[in-house]
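Sorry to interrupt, but I need a hand with the structure work. Go ahead and set the record down below:
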Amino acid sequence: MYRTKNCGELKLKNVNEVVELAGWIQKIRDLGGMIFIDLRDECGITQIVVNEETLQNQAKEMKVESCIHVKGTVVERTNKNANLPTGEVEVIAQELQLLGKCKNILPFEINTDQEVREDLRLEYRFLDLRNTQLHNNILLRSEILKTLRDKMHELDFTEIQTPILANSSPEGARDYLVPSRLNPGEFYALPQAPQQFKQLLMVSGFNKYYQIAPCFRDEDPRADRAPGEFYQLDFEMSFATQEDVFQVMEDVIPYTFEKYTNWKVDKGPFVRIPYKEAMEMYGIDKPDLRNPLIIQDGTNLFKDTEFQAFRGKTVKFIVVPEGAKQGRKFFDKMEEFAKTEEVGAKGLAWTKVEETGELAGGIAKFITEEMKQALQTQYHAEKNASIFFVADEFEKAQKIAGLIRIELGKRLDLLEKNVYKFCFIVDFPMYELSDEGTIDFSHNPFSMPQGGLEALKNKNPLEILAYQYDLVCNGYEMASGAVRNHDPEIMVKAFEIAGYTEQDVKERFGALYNAFQYGTPPHAGAAPGIDRMVMLIADAQNIREVIAFPKNKKARDLLMRAPSIVTPEQLKDVHIQLDIKQTK
């Protein structure tokens, strides 16, 4: 046995006990006649005192982050450390043993506030994971997963695993393809989600299914999206409506958040915001409700304006209470932000409402007395407010105004602190126009259109809404779901509008199409993202901080050096020849 106690559990009650500890050397302090070692394991830190000369000679040969075993007696400290859970005691070493030697030079310091290049951290992730904060994030993730499983079982869900080697399916991103050795020229696809399998489970007569499901999507990474793979709490219910799904999420999500945070957590029922309203008020379909600012439409207000930049354009504006107190530099910086490539605005107009109620600065001279009165009475542009205007094509104006709203919230520190605010975005459009001008699915192709077959036959496709919904938390999309299309006739018509023939449906979704001929129950579900949930609860700034072995911004695993080149023999086994131009 290497240890009888963990480093973080020793207290005054353990004084005079002989204990054995094992862990990593966090710090060594040689004070001449006495050496102190801060010994760290997963549970905490204990101070080791080395007095005996032979042991001191051993200790002097040991390097920081070496793995050691210590046997010694627990004593009360004379200089107690109130910042350490074990700060009232220390261990007088009787034996020291080096278990695992560390190199003289570390690639970076483990527990430090010093900035370390992320790619270096990922290359040495096994060292990075010794960092207390990061290590605790992974332990927290484990606890959250256990809580989610316990809660789902409490709600009578059955955990069922679905295949990883599956078929290609249009889920909104590129597939990861896996060549088949036994079936030359054919490929599996790693599932973007267990969508078809969980629907088939409903056809199979299971009432409630769930799993902690790995999902694979070949899409670009972001701060809140890991490249390649992610995990979700995937669940589905037979004979369920949209409200039934909402009730499950309103039960499971706040329960889990409250268990692991001291922040205020919204309770159900969560606010329901139609997609169209979200875009109008927030300029985005994942609004951060901690931000009190809203977007208002001023198109009609400025329809006869002499200001050429607004003529014939959609005009959106944001009123910022007390915003007039900001200096000119603030307004100039906001205009610089608006013109960045990320935002894409040609400019950002603004004005202030003075203490007297008069408008000043920016485009004040283009605002008539009638407009001013409307802004103050109808749009709540009160004294000391500032107003920011965006003018562009409709969708672009919405998007730009949404990004301006977010940036104003950050720069003016308007976001409500220490709170998780949830909302459901509902009534997503079933279809959208693709870049080529064709009709395409806007969200999930397996969703039930509102109005059913009649709507598909008689309405403009771009006006059809779907029973689709997202759960949003503090500006992050945390879950997506839908009431599923369980009628084969509606399914064929829905795909026909998006350019698929019935034969296409039979070939690409043959299992679902065939299963739906045999008495399919209405069903619905959703899939909260595990990684984002942990990131939010841990208050981490990047999703890679809650994943044990993440890939970098270029979707590379720097630790395992993947993706990598494989041998010609391996390619031959799966009947593949590469057509890649050699670069010098």
